[in-house]
Amino acid sequence: MAKHYLFFLIAVFSFLGCLSSETPKTETLPTQTPIVSKKSLSEIDLTTIKHIEPKGRVQDGRLEGENFVKLTIAEDLIANGKDSIPFLIRKLDDETEMKRGTVDFWYEVYVGDIVLIILMDLFTKSDGKTSTIPGFAWDEFLERGNNKDSMGEEILRKYIKKYGRKNIKKRWQYVWDAQKENIFWNEKERCFDIKRVSA
Predict the structure, then answer these.
(1) Could you tell me the pTM of the whole model?
(2) Is residue 115 within 8 Å of 94, Cβ to Cβ?
(3) pLDDT-based confidence at 50, cuts 50/70/90?
């Protein structure tokens, strides 16, 4: 009888031990992804951009001394998703003059210029050259042709003189209207991309 009683007690204590070692249910729940604070598009002031690197993409940030710094405005635009695209397109013909030095080696800089750089970068793959929109890389879009000696600003000024800023805006608007449902953020390439729809 004592053996059965002892066996019963061991079984009870073992059972209680198993209960106490179970992980509480609250610890097994997935943790929530923290919400990234962002400015709404109406709060973004493109004239506050201090400096854009002449090489590389705006979404990649830049080196300041030994520190890697993200461009806050680029981060805010990305955080707003593809809604930032029509926001930028609306400003492509904005001729508000920016502070000289906003883009290295440029003599004049306007909001429309900055917007064009940002839009092109946001649709450029991580190799820094390939546009996710065929024909929309800087040299192709602005019809550089064989003119390899001219700087980026010269190419842009010649294009604007020939066609006007409204033409740039019209071309981007056409892409947005035609592809807005297919545009998505490609996290691997850190750029906007277009889903290829099979015929």
Answers:
(1) 0.77
(2) yes
(3) confident
